[in-house]
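Quick one:
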Amino acid sequence: MPEYDDDEAIARALQEQYNQEDTQQQRQVSARRSRSARTTNTNNVVATAPPEQVVRGQGISETDEEYARRVAREEERLYRYYQRRQQSHRSNNSSSSNNRPSAPIIPPPVPVDTNTSRSVTFDVCRSDSGDTHGTTSNEGSAVAEFEDEEYARRVEQELLDEEVARRYQENEEARASRVVARQVATERPPRYSFNCFCGYLVFATVIGAAVVAFFYFFYIQDNGKPRDWIWDPSDFADEDPFDAKKPDDVTPWRSNGRGLNVEVLNALEDNWDEFFYTAILDWDLGYPDSLTLSTATVEKDSNCHLHPTQGKVKVCNGDYGRTSWKGINEVHIDGSGYIYASTARLNDFYFDGNKGSMQYTMCHELGHAWGLPHTDETFGNKDLGNCMDYTLNEADNNTPDLSNYDFLFRLYGLVPDAEEYIAPTVAPSYAPLPTFAPIGELVGVSQQQEQSPGKNKDNGKTRSLEVVEDGYDEEIRASLADARERIMSGKRDGVRTVYRGSRGEVHEADMVKGHKLVVHKLLPTAR
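Output:
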């Protein structure tokens, strides 16, 4: 029988073949009607009703034998039909590229008994010996039974697949847990590689070098004085960082209330003469006039602080190196509480030819020599316009102003024949410096100043050296040297830090016979 892809085509082909064979059988039955019938064992096939020709009172004839054979052939055709139907159904389910729906299930052709005009159906089964048996049933029962069995097999297979998948997942999870546990049990601590060790070594070397550099620049280069840069809370006074001092709070020179008359010794290099004499004039020609200053040029002495002179102010300069100060003033106070002598030093290391800074520092250190305190020690506020103010703008604050002159007036009074000055009830709030007349017409210049032969006799061009006796006895001189060494080395024995800030420091040290040394340091802004 030829192969067909469509169930409907198969059914039509079977129907045509059935009709042909039925016609042929009818012809054979007509030809053999005269022959006697033989009994045929048809126990395996039972028709729904025998043909009319057979049951007309005659026995089993030849027609019955042919009928049995025809039924057997139909059973064989049905069996082959269902086999091909199963194969076609399985091929449609397994094909992933063919998306068209499966062909509808068409029942096989129903054979028709030509003698009785009744349809005959068969239940198909195959015995172990290969015999074919058929029984008649209702139309379409074989197809329904086949579909139920196929559906049952599918459901059973899906349940089996689900169970297999569940067991597989459980086995995988158990295996993964065992693998993780085995890895944790066999895991070893990390081993440091050579590159990792080198990285740590480089980091430690950099940190060590930074620490060494820090101590070198701030300790060794600072002449071994760590107290100059290490913060110590005990070094600060209990007062506010700046509490403006009044005349009663400072130590003055001994005076009779008619101004201060003091000589200033010039032990400076020639390049400082311009700034020295400018500062002397600024302080001497103020209003109110409370100072009578005279100058004398002495031998250049960068260590003038080692040779102070009683009753005089001595100024010198030199390149003292990285001392952490650019200007320093030492005031020697006697046992009676008055200034005994004063020296000022200017460190060329920090100036680099900056004239504004040089003039500011000269004016500032001479102001301490007269006994003046700072007018302000706060940075970041508005400049006060005088050289006793801590400022970063030194070029615009390098002269005294009315507040400084008023403070001197309250300390020493007016010099003889000076212009009258009525002091305000409240001290001036750092008023700007008044405008002065030319030097020959100065208001407030005393007769003593004009007649004093030593007053400003140095003009910066001709230096006439004078020999001045210092007036110190050996005990006071030795005590002064010891006090200076204790302050400059940072020792605490008998040393008090009155003030320490970012731009200045004030220290005190006790001496013999009730004397003491007060040191003012002006710190650099850079370098």
